[in-house]
Each structure stands twice: as structure tokens, then as C-alpha cells.
Amino acid sequence: MTSLDRSFAALADPVRRALLDRLAEGEASVQELARPFAISQPAISRHLKVLEEAGLIETRIAGTARPRRLKPEGVAALWDWLGRYRAQWERQFEKMDCVLEGLAEAAPAKVPRGEEK
């Protein structure tokens, strides 16, 4: 399994996506990350392990604390891959905008009700 495969597999779970959303705001402890969820702290730790193995987060050692944070390189790899498809879709939307503008210009103007003569 490639690192990109591991990243997308990790993102398949909504809890892990929510954890990444939280970590996008800044690093946090497991306790802080577990607070909004109705699952146990060990379950959160397992989700964090999957994210770390996928290269999306990392653990910083600060004495006895082990705060987690986003790993920019891992997220950048996903962004690069998705960026190719984003550019393709943007080109398609630009073409569709041109077609729709042409249709709008070709359509007869409608007179609002009550203003007909």
C-alpha cells in the first residue's frame, strides 16, 4: 500500500477527518481531541495511530506530554494529488460557464407578468 493509499484509507473514517479538522487549528493532546466525541480515549488513540501511520499527523514529545499536530508533508502530498483533478474540474466548469452564457444570450427576454402590452 502506498502512502497515498494509506492517507485516503485513513480519511475514510469521519472521526479521523474530524480529528484532522481539529488539528488544523493547532496541536492538541489526546484528552483535548477526545473531548467532543462519545467514544473512549483509547479509541481516539487508535484513530490517531492510523493518522500517524498514514503520515498525516505527528507526535511531539514535550516532557511527559505527547501533543499531536498535522504533518505538513503528508497533507501536502494529498493536496498535490487532488490539485491535478481540481485544475481539470475548473477547466470543465469554465467551459460550462461559456455554454450557459451563450444560452442566456440566445434566450428571448421574458416580460414580467402584469407588464405585458
From TrEMBL:
PANTHER family the UniProt entry points to: SLL0088 PROTEIN (PTHR38600:SF2), TRANSCRIPTIONAL REGULATORY PROTEIN (PTHR38600)
Positions of the HTH arsR-type domain: 1-90
Superkingdom of the source species: Bacteria
Protein name as it appears in the record: Transcriptional regulator
CDD domains referenced in this protein's UniProt entry, alphabetically: HTH_ARSR (cd00090)
Record-linked PROSITE patterns: HTH_ARSR_2
GO molecular function terms listed in the Swiss-Prot or TrEMBL record: DNA-binding transcription factor activity
Name of one Pfam family that matches: HTH_20
